[in-house]
Amino acid sequence: MNVTIDIKLLGFALIVIAVLVLIVFLIQLVRKLLVTLDHANKILADVEVVSEIASERTQDINGIVGDVAESAGALAKAAKEKQNVIQATTSVVKAVVSVKNAIGGDEKDKK
Q1: In this structure, are residues 60 and 91 in contact, taking their beta carbons and an 8 Å threshold?
Q2: Distance CA 80, CA 45 (A)
Q3: pTM of the prediction?
Q4: Which end of the chain is more exposed for a tag (fewer CB within 10 A), N or C?
């Protein structure tokens, strides 16, 4: 029994097999790409949450710095103008309360 295969037919068969293998590899590549995109979307969502928290904390710290600067200014003014000690002490207490609230706010967020 002799089988003759034409070279043209053999080349065409090899090309069809190569295309089928390429399609299988492309399907696997697309599957892995979809998984990677899901992970990237989760990471971007986490980054958005973290940047929002950082923005809030920055605004809180900005307010605290403003309160402390105001208290320091009041102390300097009290020293220059010899204001009464009660007003200067009140300014210091306000600054300490602002710092305490900022630290206490972090503890509330953790709970």
Answers
A1: no
A2: 52
A3: 0.48
A4: N
